[in-house]
Amino acid sequence: MKNFFSKQLGNYKLIYQELIRENLSLFIKLFLLLLLEGLTIVFSILSLIPIADSFADNTLSNVSYITEFFIKIYTFLGIEPGIVIFLMGFIFFNFLKALNNTIISYGIINIKYTLIKKLTFSFLENCFNSRWLFFQRHSHGRFINIYNNEIGKISSTFYDFVTQSSMAIKFLTYLVTPFFLNFQITIITLVLAIIFTAPFLLLGKIANKLGYKNTLTGKSFLNGISETLQASKLIISYNKQKNEIFRNQNLFLDHLKVTTKFQILSSITIFFYQPLAILAVSIALIYSLKTQTNIAELAAVLYSLVATLPMLGSFVQSNLNLQNLTPSLIMYKSLIEESKSLKERKSGKRLDKKINEIEFKNISFEYDNGFKALNNCNMIFKKNLITAISGKSGAGKSTLLDLLIGIQVPLSGKIFIDKEELEKFDLSSYRDKISMVSQDPFLFNVSILDNLKWVKDNIDEDQLIECLKLANCDNFIDKLPDKIHTIVGERGMKLSGGQRQRISLARAIICKPELLILDEPTSSLDKESEELIFDSLKKISKFTTIILITHDSKIINLADKIYFINDGNISNQ
After folding, report:
1. Which has the least CB within 10 A, 84, 220, 284, 455?
2. Helix, strand, coil shares of the chain as percentages rounded to 5?
3. Residue 210 — very low, low, confident or very high, per pLDDT cuts 50/70/90?
4. Rounded distance, CA 396 to CA 399, Å?
């Protein structure tokens, strides 16, 4: 029991620290509205008593002091009190209650969507401002899971929490008011309600475990789907479709089992709670009839207690949902904190001058797993020359590329831009001067033109034609049904490998880079596509410094300078 309440307090503390504190002004406004709603509830309850007294006047010798209070108020206002006036007063206070409740509902929904916006924007901003190392440490599936599931779960559960807070004030108001009207009946009802509530504390403890397990199984399923989709070509080529279907089906079934258990638990709570609460009120009613309680006050007490019944089920349900919040919020928070710790450097002066030389001096690099990819490497890249970096797979070529772009940081050594350390410059201004074509070029599922505009939106027609010609794209684009407006498909799969490579090359040179990096530009290309790429590079090298990452001996012959890398060590020719 103690452990359950400590977990609950831990949940509320986490909510305050991570969610409420950031939106404190909104919550203060909401709290004031809730207090106002509490007052309208009190008056809506009390205004029922004069009505009940009016109907019971022939059988009762006493009139409630509440009725006397309302009579004095109406008399003071110059209104003749009577059953019609009492009814109008009751309707008026209930109308105010409904109006205030509508405003509160709007406020709660507004808080929910404000939270979704803040969480989403914070997630995107922190992740994409992190170093490349951050993305290397996590699967695509984890990002998709947090973006699609955990943020939605946090906001929905937080919505439940705020709703729960609103209901708590209503609940207390509906209980406190009859407490002052009839102490005995209220106490009896509350004691019975507490007795009947005790078993549900155990359900809350079980729900906490299920909520955490539900998050983990959901994450595993999404990771599995993401991994399968990324490896679809490999899976088909090895004829392993059945294996992957079976694996993902099992992951889904594990998640479904946990989700079903959690929902059943929630349903049990709702179905059993309300009948037990009604039983408590019924016992209180029997007691009041035997003790000859004032009927008007009894009506108000029962009205108050019965009004709490719909809230009880919702309150317990939202409390169960709250158990889902902790693992989701912890998962989200841990990823954000990690992204902040790996935040990419934004300081330094702008690199506005032309780059004449890039020098690697005594560069060493080591990955998280302890693998030393580069060892004391020295290289110089001169303006308007083609430099090739060649070596076997795993020799360290891709690591050199990452260092050139600035997405990795050397373990030791320095990178110099015209004799000045790279770390003194703003990385964004440095990258503005760089374009890259990867081994497996990525194209967005939009038109060819939109893929080109992705790097530079304001492209004039002459510039566009020139870049397409330089990359040898113009001939095959003219043969397409929609020409430059052709949709390329996911990752550009509607085009051949050579066509994707050439469009990527056109995209790379359209912003007129000072440094063009090509990672295995001829891998998996046919002879015709290779020749076209060779021809393009010869043209581009007249105005751009080119660095080739390759093991292809044919393209190496284009280079003015060649570096060979073997087990992280550099030699040159």
Report:
1. 84
2. 65, 10, 20
3. confident
4. 5
How far apart, in whole angstroms, are the C-alpha atoms of residue 107 and residue 102? 9
Angle, helix 24-46 to helix 295-307, in steps of 10 degrees: 150
DSSP letters spanning 397-426: HHHHHHHHHTSS--SEEEEEETTEEGGGB-
Tell me, what amino acid is at 565?
I
Round to whole Å and give the CA distance between 203 and 268. 9
Cβ-contact 454, 444 below 8 angstroms: yes
DSSP state of 70: H
pTM, two decimal places:
0.61
- Count of alpha carbons within 13 angstroms of residue 368, beta-carbon side: 8
Angle at 451 between CA 450 and CA 453, to 5 degrees: 60
User: What confidence tier does 39 reach under pLDDT thresholds 50, 70, 90?
Assistant: confident
* 508 neighbors 436 (Cβ within 8 angstroms): yes
Alpha helices in 291-396 (DSSP H): 295-307, 309-322, 325-341
**Domain edges within the chain:** 11-341, 357-572
Two tokens, residue 324: 């889902």
Q: Are β-strands 434-437 and 515-519 bridged in parallel, bridged antiparallel, or unpaired?
A: parallel
Q: Return contacts of 375-380, CB within 8 angstroms, 24+ apart.
A: 375/567, 375/568, 375/569, 376/413, 376/569, 377/413, 377/565, 377/568, 377/569, 377/570, 378/570, 379/563, 379/570, 379/572
Q: What is the mean pLDDT of residues 428-438?
A: 83
pLDDT band at 5 (very low <50, low <70, confident <90, very high): very low
Q: Does residue 356 surpass a pLDDT of 80? A: yes
Cβ–Cβ under 8 Å, residues 409 and 491: no
3-class state of residue 74 by DSSP: helix
Q: Please, how many CA atoms are within 13 Å of residue 415, restricted to the half-sphere of its CB?
A: 22
Cβ atoms 274, 309 nearer than 8 A:
yes
Domains 11-341 and 357-572 share a fold: no
Question: Is the model's pLDDT at 144 over the cut of 70?
Answer: yes
| More confident position, 296 or 42 | 42
Q: Which of 306, 261, 276, 259 is nearest to 199 (CA)?
A: 276
Between the alpha carbon of residue 147 and those of residues 86, 117, 331, 343, the distances in Å are 54, 12, 11, 19
- Measured CA to CA, the distance from residue 35 to residue 50 in angstroms comes to 24
Instruction: Give pairs for 500-503: CB < 8 Å, separation 24+.
Output: 500/441, 500/443, 501/437, 501/441, 501/525, 501/529, 501/533, 502/471, 502/472, 502/473, 502/476, 502/529, 502/532, 502/533, 502/536, 503/441, 503/443, 503/448, 503/451, 503/452, 503/471, 503/473
Q: Which of 312, 291, 343 is nearest to 128 (CA)?
A: 343
Tens digit of each residue's pLDDT (9 = 90 or more) over 165-175: 777 777 777 66
Q: Residue 87 CB: number of other CB atoms within 10 A?
A: 15
Tokens 């009505």 locate to: 51
The answer to whether residue 234 scores a pLDDT higher than 60 is no
Helix (H/G/I), strand (E/B), else coil: 230: helix
Q: CA 315 to CA 283: how far, in whole Å?
A: 23
Q: Which architecture does CATH list for 11-341? A: Up-down Bundle (1.20)
Q: Which residues contact 64 (CB under 8 A, 6 or more apart)?
A: 49, 50, 53, 294, 296, 297
Write the CATH number of the domain with boundaries 357-572.
3.40.50.300
